[in-house]
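Sync notes, pocket subgroup
Present: LS, DG
LS reminded everyone that the earlier model was apo-only. Rerun requested with 2-acetamido-2-deoxy-beta-D-glucopyranose included. Inputs:
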Amino acid sequence: MEVDQLILFVFVSCLSSRFAGAYDPVDPNGNIIINWDFQSIENVYTVMVSIHNHQLYRHIEQPGWRLSWRWAGDEIIWGMTGAEATEQGDCHRIRGATRPHCCEKQPVIVDLPPGTPYNNQVANCCRGGVLSSLTQNNRTSTAAFQMVVGSFKHVSYHDGARGPALPSRFGIGVPGYSCSNATKVNATSESEKPELPAGDGEAISPVFRCTDHMCPVRVHWHVKISYREYWRVKVTITNYNLVKNYSNWNLVVQHPNLRSLTQLFSFNYQPLIQYGTVNNTGIFWGIQYYNEMLLQDGNVQTEMILRKDKGDFTFSGGWAFPRRVYFDGHECVMPPPDQYPLLPNRGLDSRISVAQWLLMASSCLLSLSIFLIV
Ligand SMILES: *[C@@H]1O[C@H](CO)[C@@H](O)[C@H](O)[C@H]1NC(C)=O
Ligand SMILES: *[C@@H]1O[C@H](CO)[C@@H](O)[C@H](O)[C@H]1NC(C)=O
Ligand SMILES: *[C@@H]1O[C@H](CO)[C@@H](O)[C@H](O)[C@H]1NC(C)=O
Ligand SMILES: *[C@@H]1O[C@H](CO)[C@@H](O)[C@H](O)[C@H]1NC(C)=O
Ligand SMILES: *[C@@H]1O[C@H](CO)[C@@H](O)[C@H](O)[C@H]1NC(C)=O
């Protein structure tokens, strides 16, 4: 074994999410499916709504999903289990002992928090709107709630007898922020740490101590050891945000040598193979009860050993660094090619940091698409 490489490579994920219908080459078939299962079709009917995150690596983090649609007629929601509408709306026309849950033409529904009383739960509800990616957990990638819907006028059928009118204009609003929203603090002691803003379902702006990049998360790819036939990389993900834990975080990396990943420590890995034999992209995530949560002001680390593919492998030209990286579905900013660290001349302990250029914060895109299947 010879230790002849010590190269540092730093890049940063700026967390911002936006709803975009953009094509995602890493997960071209990813989508979110919303099912409406009508359990009874009467004047007042019961429907089980379920949301299935069929995306391989993108998940929905806190403050969670919000689902909205527009009623075709004058429907009102009499009751809801496993979720709730954000506003009751104007129900003054409704007389009687029972108050409707929501009279909005365009209701906005949010999930209930964990620990909701059992009699207000349905299966797969009550996770605070958080949906994991399909790869990480195919059970918690689904959410559901049940509602009882009736009509103000007793006519909830559309066009006669075809059954309840389907609502339209569905939307899931996924909140986000970018580096520019960050509140900078000079936190050097516990007492200076800011209070967590009251969680009212809104996204919390990142708060972190001053760094030169001012981004909440840094992914550090460290090419650590070169063996004769293998090489070793250490990856550290650092959370600079003082008020946010990333639960069920994930990291997607594209690198041509991932097809020869031989050994991995402390993380899970699953290749994301989408184009025949091209096996250059995969998802890393934490081990349950060990490091699945990236704590505020903390970090998680892995080391991996890759086999040097003959005719392909090289330390020159930046080949050893990833081509593309996403943290929690947000594409990380990569250094421009001329700022890649070079091989250390002869010294063993050369450390080259490329953090400076990151002063220009860029946004990341979260792309989702919705298919309505009934
Ligand atoms: C869900 O995941 C579990 C364990 O990760 C796996 O055994 C099971 O086959 C998966 N189910 C489906 C439908 O993919
Ligand atoms: C972040 O900043 C943008 C632009 O200034 C703003 O539209 C957005 O609401 C902010 N987000 C939060 C969570 O404060
Ligand atoms: C942080 O420290 C700098 C220099 O000491 C000071 O100018 C700045 O106001 C401080 N910021 C906060 C948020 O305390
Ligand atoms: C993050 O997790 C730690 C340990 O579980 C907890 O003490 C802290 O309150 C959490 N922070 C937030 C913002 O939820
Ligand atoms: C893809 O690469 C992984 C190692 O990262 C390997 O275990 C797996 O067998 C490869 N799959 C295919 C289809 O080549």
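DG: The chain has a mean pLDDT of 73.
LS: The radius of gyration is 24 Å.
Action: DG to write up.
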